[in-house]
Amino acid sequence: MGKQLVIGASGFLGSHVTRRLVERGEDVRVLIRRTSSTRGIDGLPVERHYGDIFDGDAVRAAVAGCDVVYYCVVDARAWLRDATPLWRTNVEGLHRVLDVVAGVELQRFVFTSSIATIGIAAHGKATEELPNNWLDRAGEYVRTRVAAENLVLRYHRERGLPAVAMCVSNTYGSGDWLPTPHGGLVAAAVRGKLPFYIDGAQAEVVGVRDAADALILAGERGTPGERYIISERFMTAREIYRTACAAVGVEPPRIGVPIQALAAAAVPSAWLARIRRTDTRLTPLSIRLMHVMSPMNHTKAERELGWRPAPTTEALAEAAEFFVGARRRPAEDRS
User: Fold this and answer.
1) Secondary structure of residue 261 in the 3-state scheme
2) Using CA of residue 130, residue 134, residue 135, residue 139, what is the dihedral sign?
3) Residue 251: inside a domain
4) Is residue 163 a part of any domain in this protein?
5) 330 lies in a domain?
6) In this protein, which residues make up the domain named NAD-dependent epimerase/dehydratase (predicted)?
7) Second label for 31, Cα 20 to 30 Å away, from 61, 70, 197, 319?
8) Domains in the chain: how many in total?
9) Is 286 in contact with 187 (CB distance < 8 Å)?
10) What are the tens digits of pLDDT across the range 211-253?
């Protein structure tokens, strides 16, 4: 392939896409903000362009001469009381980028979507054929993700953009510097700071390197206009923390709080947050998102892209080792 552009290379998944491309010997360019942390890509031989997704000139300059664009920008703060930042980044900013790339000859535009855009299956596992059918209880974050994916696919239908939508689940692995919301819980568990697990919480999961590989495969052979589920397996919260803690030899959280009890506690938590005009991660919506979705079938990605993910248990072990190591690392090395 020719030159590859990663938009959002400073993020967890974007940094891994960048690194995997470099490891393959590709010619890689990144578009990042000057204020973004670059710990995930420091030392990599990539061409850096600076700007954000609302800067049309910066996007045009970054896209020029590229064959494939990997779009890895997302605001995942599902707990925000005011969803304006979510809509601005996840939909409005994306729209600005699509207006630019729709006028460029590209081989692929690989869009990082979410498994939240997939519907809930009445029976068995959900597939890409099932559109989201639970928006009435999904919250604004999921609404922005569905709107963003629909926008990308509309640009494919109406303007011929060779876009592929990658419906990625919760990613785990090393290099989760921020960390992600789900990674932060693993970090707390392996550091002995998570007093309990939520009994009934469950999620689709995937190793971040495998997710990055799936995006790169889509850049080579993904069918424009198609969605691909990028998830390796379905795990309970207890399984996730037990796997991570075992990898670093610490005791996992032993107390399981029923998800119904936590949902009840979330009601006054959300009420107090509204009164104080602050954000809280403990809301009825955040608890609902921990168990609402169906297990998913990722065989389409295997069949059409040649994707072969490793067991996510391995990625959880890597995440655990990373979080423990990051805690021990001197402060000057983390700056």
Assistant:
1) helix
2) negative
3) no
4) yes
5) no
6) 5-230
7) 319
8) 1
9) no
10) 999 999 999 999 999 999 999 999 999 999 999 999 999 999 9
